[in-house]
Amino acid sequence: MDQNSVKAYNAKILLFGEHLINLGSDALSIPYDKFSGRLLSAEASEIRLSSFIEFLKSSNFSFLDADKIAAYNPIKFSSNIPEGYGCGSSGAIVAACYDLFRSDKEEDLTLLKNRFAEMEAFFHGKSSGTDPLVSFFNKAIRFNRDGSIKLLPSFDISLRNYKLLLIDSGQSREGKNLIAWFLHQAKEHNFKSMLTKELVPATRSCIDSLLEKDETKFKENFASISRLQLEHFSKMIPDSIKPLWTAGLQSENLYLKLCGAGGGGFFIGLLKNDAAFELLKGYNTYSLI
């Protein structure tokens, strides 16, 4: 494979809907081209990739070409997508392998999402299929509460008075336990009520106002999500981030929220443009705009 001619599969950032997407809430996920990966020829396939391809062989998925899988030459997934950071590193691998081995040109978003969920189960035990879908199309995607999925090919983040950032917590995380904790908490009456009456509406309004370019409403709802997550999702916020989270809310110059499962990896920040960056000293940040 010629590196210059092989398609790159970008990382994904789940801007809104973390954990809630498992309960049928709206969500918005975008590709992020600062991190990507591609399949390349290799003298020997990587162990992780070889194990995944063996899984694909044994699964006999009807949507994959068994002859292509059986005949593949040694390959590697050359990637700078950080693992355990909520950027969809396994989703990009799934999208790349699906593209390489698929047996048809299916374009139905829901069907593709379900296919990707079956494939990505190898890495996570259970998958929604949303991460590979974003990497596969390299487009922003809105997942609606009614189950419908919409590609947003012209989506862009344009804010006049704020910057959207990725903030590195300095530690990776394993999302399985946090997802299990959230699903357990969501059965508890008071927690479920908070989700239904406060967090889900704020998430939906954040997505709508960002797409409608209503910056005032967007900031208000982002701030609401930040406060709710600090109060109710403390288990998912590492100690390295909590002081920044609290100081940002107190200053009203920086609001933080989870990026994916939480517990480590990246967090998303909304920073007021005229605010000094002193709060962020000591943290690695990446612009989302």
Record the SSE blueprint.
Elements: E1 9-16, E2 27-41, H1 47-59, H2 66-71, E3 75-79, H3 89-101, H4 109-124, H5 130-137, E4 140-143, E5 149-152, E6 162-168, H6 175-185, H7 189-211, H8 215-232, H9 242-251, E7 254-258, E8 266-272, E9 285-287
Antiparallel strand pairs: 1-2, 2-3, 2-4, 4-5, 6-8, 6-9, 7-8
Structure write-up:
The mean pLDDT is 91. The chain has 2 domains: 9-152, 2-Layer Sandwich (Ribosomal Protein S5, domain 2); 162-287, 2-Layer Sandwich (Alpha-Beta Plaits). The strands form 2 sheets. Strands 1, 2, 3, 4 and 5 form a 5-stranded antiparallel beta sheet that branches. It has a 4-stranded antiparallel beta sheet with strand order 7-8-6-9. The protein starts with 8 loop residues before the first strand and ends with a strand. It is built from 9 helices and 9 strands. With 289 residues, the chain is α+β, with helices and mostly antiparallel strands.
CATH T-level topology of the largest domain: Ribosomal Protein S5, domain 2
Q: What is the residue-averaged pLDDT?
A: 91
Give the overall shape, derived from the CA principal axes: globular
Helical segment tally? 9
Overall helicity: 40-55%
Number of domains: 2
Describe the main β-sheet briefly: 5 strands, antiparallel
Low-confidence segments, ≥5 residues, pLDDT <50?
A: none
Short description:
The chain is of the alpha+beta class and 289 residues long. The protein has 9 helices and 9 strands.
For the structure shown, list the relevant keywords:
Alpha-Beta Plaits; 289 residues; four-stranded antiparallel sheet; five-stranded antiparallel sheet; 2 domains; 9 helices; alpha+beta; single chain
